[in-house]
Specification:
Radius of gyration: 22 Å
Mean pLDDT: 93
Order of helices and strands: HHEEEEEEEEEHEEEHEHHEEEHEHEEEH
Structural class: alpha/beta
Shape: globular
Helix content: 25-40%
CATH class of the largest domain: Alpha Beta
Low-confidence stretches: 168-173
């Protein structure tokens, strides 16, 4: 059986994932853990003067959190862990009610790089947020999570499509409207069901960001339960590790010599180009304001950035036993071998030798293994928020990630040890020298 410390971390990870079917739930769950550790939420309209200790700012599906050690000068450098809260899925359209041939269906849009076949014949629930009428100028928001088997994208029986196993692609426009009831479409029925689950009047719902999620619980797989299987491992493994590391750095016996930061962005799976994505000025503005709030000048801000280091943590590919030729022959990470350090000379990853040195030295201090990752030259290389953060802030950045199988699937797999290894390494980096 695997050692207890790893299982303790992954048990907590699975609870985190089960409670986080949408980016908005990820942020809410992370904020709750930070508040329990003594962090306080700051709002953009608040006066941040003198803000020290643990603080965080949440905005929709993004969260920026940091901890200022007692007596830290305004020019103290940052140690940033960058992650993302979103995962590829099916998102509900603004006018969702539809149907055909006596079935009631809902209209969905594909979000991110979804392997559509993994969403077939799964029991699906609904989650996200509702924007509600409010006497003030800004609508209030309410999270909703329906963990019931409401919907399903049914696969066509093989008797009606003998070519289904010949790699025929799904018609993305016609065959992804999930069924959820019998009868003619009823306008507003989905809204009424979701509003009731949130305890709200449908008339007060002015807008929504809703999506589907697989309701099967996260769990373990293997003879010795050496694998974790769950939806949204990409990238909730890294968010959970980042929150754990930040709390440990802030509450440990050794005060950090740096300002540890967790940056959990939204919309990474579709390019990060939003107000809450890594391409936005969100992180830059919040960190700059935190320096100013402690009496820092432009010179202090520049000095802080000059000594800053960023770890971009996103899932990575373990070697696939059935498709080993798709991987680099000399770089074949395996689950439970430690996080990977991801390298791409064309800057799809921001890693360079300095970043490798910082990360591997931290891994040694944490007593955790690590593995190198390079994509096969003949295969397009993925990317992460690392290059975006490096380009925006001009800071040394290393791209890392827990290796797994079935990335972007409705149900992914990774090793039981690796999430804990990642959290331990991130904690070491966040504490500093």
């Amino acid at each position: 059986m695997t050692p207890a410390p790893h299982r303790s971390h992954t048990d907590d990870l699975l609870s985190f994932i089960a409670a986080s079917p949408s980016p908005y739930h990820v942020v809410a769950g992370a904020a709750q853990r930070l508040e329990k550790a003594g962090f306080r939420e700051l709002r953009g309209t608040d006066d941040w003067t003198g803000a020290t200790g643990g603080c965080f700012v949440s905005r929709a599906g993004a969260l920026i959190a940091w901890y200022v050690p007692e007596g830290a000068p305004a020019h103290t450098p940052f140690r940033i862990v960058g992650t993302h809260t979103d995962s590829p899925n099916l998102r509900i359209k603004p006018a969702p009610d539809s149907g055909a041939s006596g079935w009631r269906q809902i209209g969905v849009e594909i979000y991110g790089g979804v392997p559509l076949n993994t969403w077939l014949d799964r029991d699906l629930g609904i989650s996200g947020r509702l924007a509600l009428r409010d006497p003030g100028s800004i609508p209030r928001s309410r999270l909703v999570q329906i963990d019931e088997p409401l919907l399903r994208v049914p696969q066509l029986a093989i008797h009606l499509d003998r070519s289904v196993n010949e790699g025929v692609a799904l018609d993305r426009q016609r065959h992804i409207a999930p069924v959820w009831a019998l009868g003619d479409p009823r306008e507003g029925e989905l809204l009424r069901r979701v509003a009731a689950a949130a305890g709200e009047d449908p008339a007060d719902v002015l807008g929504w960001d809703l999506m589907l999620h697989d309701i099967q619980s996260p769990g373990y797989l293997g003879v010795d339960r050496e694998f974790v299987v769950a939806s949204r491992l990409d990238n909730q493994v890294s968010v959970h590790a980042g929150v754990t590391a930040l709390v440990d750095a802030a509450t440990g016996t050794t005060q950090p010599s740096v300002v540890p930061v967790l940056a959990a962005f939204d919309h990474e799976e579709v390019g990060s180009g939003s107000e809450t994505g890594a391409q936005s000025p969100l992180l830059e503005r919040i960190l700059s304001r935190s320096v100013s709030a402690r009496g820092g000048s432009d010179e202090d801000w520049s000095r802080a950035l000059a000594g800053t280091f960023c770890v971009s943590a996103d899932m990575a590919h373990a070697v696939h036993p059935n498709y080993a030729e798709r991987h680099d022959p000399d770089h074949r990470p395996l689950p439970n071998g430690g996080p990977t350090v991801k390298v791409n000379v064309n800057q799809r990853y921001a890693t360079d030798s300095t970043g490798i040195a910082v990360f591997t030295a931290a891994a040694e201090r944490a007593g955790a293994p690590w593995q190198p990752f390079v994509s096969n030259n003949a295969m397009p290389c993925g990317t992460s928020i690392g290059p975006l953060t490096a380009a925006r802030l001009g800071v040394t950045t290393v791209d890392v990630g827990v290796p797994g199988l079935s990335m972007h699937s409705a149900r992914e797999l990774c090793g039981v040890r690796d999430p804990g290894y990642l959290a331990a390494i991130l904690t070491t980096i966040m504490v500093g020298d």
